[in-house]
Amino acid sequence: MSRNAKINSLLLLLVAALAVIPLAFGLGDHKEEPFAGADGEAETAITEIDPDYEPWFSPLYEPPSGEIESALFAIQAAIGAGVLAYYFGLRRGRRQGEARARERAAGDAGAVNAVDTAGAGDAGASAGVGDGRD
Q1: Is 88 in the same domain as 50?
Q2: CA–CA distances in Å: residue 34 to residues 31, 41, 98, 128
Q3: What residue ranges are annotated as transmembrane (predicted)?
């Protein structure tokens, strides 16, 4: 197994562990909504500290239900992942293209040098240079 495959396997195992460990150990069982977002947790903490607190801003759009809010968040995450994947794929493709161009240039330069060397040898022989017929 190559080094990259080992690293990828380790990272995949780590991500799976991060998803399974909270469920396996029952983290959050004492809460009404065990895996609520940070916004809800912050709102609860602020209300406990200062019950008369009024927010400075209100959302521009409030989804009618939690399911729609979750769906919009998932769509946002998918679009972000798509943009990142496109960027990294484009970057890798450019790097591979540059490497191929360098290989072609090095191969073409070697072929040109070989032709020039062979051509110079032929030209010298036909001119009688260096063959003792001066």
Answers
A1: no
A2: 5, 10, 50, 94
A3: 71-90
Phi, psi of 32 (to 5 degrees): -65, -45
State whether 108 and 77 are in the same domain: yes
CA 10 distance to own-chain centroid: 17
- 18, 41, 58 — which closes off a domain? 58
Please determine, for residue 75, whether its predicted confidence score (pLDDT) is greater than 60. yes
The rounded distance, in Å, linking the Cα atoms of 97 and 94 is 5
Report in angstroms the alpha-carbon separations of 67 from 60, 79, 95, 97: 18, 18, 42, 44
pLDDT at residue 113 is higher than 90: no
Mean pLDDT value of segment 52-57:
87
Where in the sequence is the domain holding 26, given as residue range(s)? 1-58
Phi, psi of 125 (to 5 degrees): -70, -40
